[in-house]
Design a protein that fits this description.
By secondary structure, the chain is mainly beta. The protein contains two helices and 19 strands. It has one domain: Porin.
Length: 428
Amino acid sequence: MKKLSILALAIILVAAFTMPAAALENVFGGYWRTRFTSQNQFSGNDKTDESDLQNVDTRTRLYYTAILNDNLKFINKFEYDATWGGNSSGYGDVGADGKDIEIKNSYADWTMGSLNFRMGVQSFVQSRGFVFDDDAAGVVALWKASDAFTMGAYWVRAYEGDSTNNNSNDEDFDLLGIQPSIAFGDSMTLKPYLLWYYSDNLSTDFADDKIGLWPDGLEAEEVSSYMVGLDFDASFDALGLWFTGIYQGGKIDNVDDPVDDDLDISAFLLAGGGEFNFGSGDIHGEAFYASGDGSQNDDDLEAFAPLFGQSYYWAEIMGLGIFDQQASAGAPGDKISNIWAVNLGVGLKPMDKLKLSFDAWYAAKPKDDDNGEDELGLELDVKATYMIVEGLNLDLVGAYLFADDATSLDGDNKDDPFELGARFSLSF
């Protein structure tokens, strides 16, 4: 795989520089960041410091787009990751001979009249990341009927089953989605959608790797799950508002239950927020609620649990934030399930090169954890962003969680998690 990645990158670069200039427009870009991270007391166990983390890591992304004509583009994104002093597969160890080149995106983008298509490995975002926010192989079709109405549809192949089986479709896992977008002038947008996840014989490997939010020990055969949702966005001068509502339903054929092998999915998520801008600053806030499962011994799955690719970043400690290496014990991180949380914050810009933000988060679980606890605690986050030179930014972050007993492995937490970090970043 590593050799193929390097070969693919070489072929693309050679083609870019050898094709006639009149036949091809080359667009290059990228992103780079280096983070210094210190995270302490994240394990929920006051008798050990095994979760304490102090490290430095670097990420580099290179973008290349080949514009063949007004209606056809070929987009590629490559990524290199390294932990300073890390293992030999990265480029952060002594010698710096990195071997890992990741292909993040590689897809064709073409337009036919009012229709646009994207095919290949690309980024998919659904419902602000509450449902899906990841790179995957698939196809997107978008019909722009007018400035006020578009209709989108997509297919994601999440997992390809074992082709050595008699049935080559065995264990395949697919996501299908339909989403219109309705604009009411420049101030409001509605995006209703319907998603369907399906596998006629779910792979154990895929389930273990991607579906960690389902109950332990679930051995699914046929999975048919759907989501019906709505995203709403509005902007009125200095005020911006947003809302998301999702219902998740469907059935799972559980081979472990000889009496009633059907598990019914019935879960929901509600989220909303807003921002008010006032000259050199803003006041912002949000809240969300994702249902939990009251009992894993019945035939109902009530915990909101998108099946894969879910990624919604919120608080620095409980919700991963900028330094997304681990979340505090008991918290869902960016995989929103069995949690409610509220946020209130202030952003300030005291000078052109400096931005400050102060945020308070409170979070708890709708359904008690295994220790009978539900309160995660109150988290305070402080962030400063400074432009060192044009194009190069420095982010300084400090976060402290006044942890309650659900931030614990045994229901008796005594230590509060805290985080300090710095990030240098640039884009071009």
